[in-house]
């Protein structure tokens, strides 16, 4: 049994038929999980149900073998041993950093616990500062320290980096992961950003319209998505049409691709060679090759050490590719490319 288990929960707001429909996920003790999805997909509702702020209509929520929510019974939030870090940090403006952390402490909290948390979260010199005197990153770390002060069994984080600029967001995501791992604190974070999930999470999932499409290792979400929605939501990529070949590979505009095909998953929706499919190609699957097919640079996004290119194929299809920035191709340039995949990921033709 996982430390945090959400088992087939349903939830509805008012007269709305379904807010969540059979959501399931599991986070092992000490793991960091991340639930991704577009706005309005149900991410924050899942957190609210786990925290006890919203009841569930079916299913169960279990933490450390304690059943906290079922259809007819909900343990109050204050008895769940759950910490929360909110999108706006929710620090008390009239309390210093130390005061905010003390507020989160259990009744037997000690001064050395305060000092330990300030050191752990890099707040030693800011204990007597007020929230309005802190930068966004400092406020985020203060909110995390306050949540840790309650010694929760599980930490929930609701888009904690969304108000920060991109550079600070990446740095803090790495710092927060280090802090959570040092405490072995089971954590579930929600975000609409797959980049944040890649930086911080061990496991994760994608939710859409109240349904978790896939819950898996972060690597598998990117490399072995189970549906086209997950494939397109998690990371850059393109879906191109092809035809299933007799050897289990696929024939398409960019040639015959074999890869390490997952025959069992292909067999669940394909019956025979000749079936039309969609082929997932990630940017690192498209290589420069003088003997490859011609494509034209249609868009480019400079990323410092690399540049992401959108390439238009002769048929009108489009693929993405990311190469070292010293190549420095320009809009309208023709390049020669080939596809080389390790994992051949196919979906039914649209």
From TrEMBL:
The keyword ATP-binding applies. PROSITE patterns: ABC_TRANSPORTER_1, ABC_TRANSPORTER_2. Residues 4-234 form the ABC transporter domain. One of its GO terms (molecular function) is ATP binding. It holds the Pfam family TOBE_2. Keywords: ATP-binding, Nucleotide-binding, Transport. SUPFAM superfamilies: MOP-like, P-loop containing nucleoside triphosphate hydrolases. It comes from the Bacteria. InterPro entries: AAA+_ATPase, ABC_SmlMolc_Importer, ABC_transporter-like_ATP-bd, ABC_transporter-like_CS, Mo/tungstate-bd_C_term_dom, P-loop_NTPase, Transp-assoc_OB_typ2. The keyword Lipid biosynthesis does not apply. This is ABC transporter ATP-binding protein. It comes from Candidatus Doriopsillibacter californiensis.
């Amino acid at each position: 049994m996982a430390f945090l288990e959400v088992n087939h929960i349903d939830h509805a707001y008012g007269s709305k038929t379904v807010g969540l429909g059979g959501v399931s996920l599991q986070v092992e003790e000490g793991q960091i999980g991340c639930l991704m999805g577009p706005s309005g997909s149900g991410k924050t509702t899942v957190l609210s149900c786990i925290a006890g702020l919203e009841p569930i209509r079916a299913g169960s929520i279990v933490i450390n073998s304690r059943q906290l929510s079922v259809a007819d019974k909900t343990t109050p939030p204050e008895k769940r041993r759950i910490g929360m870090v909110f999108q706006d940090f929710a620090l008390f403006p009239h309390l210093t950093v130390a005061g905010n952390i003390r507020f989160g402490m259990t009744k037997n909290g000690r001064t050395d616990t305060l000092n330990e948390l300030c050191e752990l979260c890099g707040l030693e010199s800011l204990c007597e500062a007020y929230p309005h005197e802190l930068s966004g990153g400092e406020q985020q770390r203060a909110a995390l320290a306050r949540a840790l002060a309650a010694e929760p069994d599980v930490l929930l984080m609701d888009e904690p980096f969304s108000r920060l600029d991109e550079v600070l967001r990446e740095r803090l995501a790495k710092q927060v992961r280090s802090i959570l791992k040092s405490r072995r604190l089971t954590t579930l974070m929600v975000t609409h950003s797959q980049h944040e999930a890649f930086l911080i999470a061990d496991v994760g999932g994608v939710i859409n319209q109240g349904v978790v499409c896939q819950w898996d290792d972060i690597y598998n979400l990117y490399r072995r998505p189970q549906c086209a929605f997950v494939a397109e939501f998690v990371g850059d990529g393109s879906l191109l049409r092809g035809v299933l070949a007799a050897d289990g590979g696929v024939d398409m505009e960019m040639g015959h691709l074999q890869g390490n095909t997952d025959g069992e998953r292909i067999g669940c929706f394909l019956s025979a060679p000749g079936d039309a499919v969609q082929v997932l190609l990630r940017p690192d699957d498209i290589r420069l090759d003088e003997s490859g097919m011609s494509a034209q640079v249609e868009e480019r996004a400079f990323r410092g050490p690399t540049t992401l290119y959108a390439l238009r194929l002769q048929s009108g299809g489009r693929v993405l590719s990311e190469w070292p920035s010293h190549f420095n191709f320009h809009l309208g340039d023709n390049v020669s490319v080939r596809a080389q995949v390790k994992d051949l990921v196919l979906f039914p033709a649209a």
